[in-house]
Write a structure and sequence with these properties.
Strand order of the largest sheet: 1-2-3-4
Largest sheet: 4 strands, antiparallel
Strand content: 15-25%
Number of helices: 2
Order of helices and strands: EEEHEH
Radius of gyration: 19 Å
Number of strands: 4
Distance between the termini: 34 Å
Shape: extended
Structural class: alpha+beta
Helix content: 10-25%
């Protein structure tokens, strides 16, 4: 059954197995905002290129009925947020010059049997 809004059928490569064929840089962030009632709310914000979506939870982010396009005020404020209000995955302020290490493993993952990493 096709996904609503999807007009292209997935390409099938019958002779290929276990091969990475594409990637896209995606950012998923936890963002705290003040809502219209001045209450602090946490949103999960997903960004890929110019597309910015949000939901109230990770589950909601992957649910087409719960995910929404981020309003312009969120987009504008995210772009203008000073580095001392941005934190890495360890909770360090990005303004202190701490570099974020890559999450890509440098050794073979043993939880992926028979997967050959190049």
């Amino acid at each position: 059954m096709p996904i609503e809004g999807m007009t292209q059928t997935p390409k099938f490569h019958g002779s290929k197995r276990r091969e990475v064929i594409a990637t896209a840089d995606v950012s998923i962030r936890q963002v705290q905002v003040l809502d219209k009632n001045s209450q602090v709310r946490t949103l999960i914000v997903w960004q890929c290129g110019p597309d910015i979506m949000y939901a109230d939870s990770m589950d909601g982010l992957f649910d087409l009925t719960r995910r929404k396009t981020a309003p312009s005020w969120v987009v504008d404020q995210l772009r203008a947020l000073p580095s001392d209000r941005q934190f890495d995955h360890l909770g360090n302020s990005k303004s202190n010059g701490v570099s974020i290490e890559s999450h890509v493993p440098t050794t073979e993952d043993d939880d992926l049997p028979d997967f050959v990493q190049g």
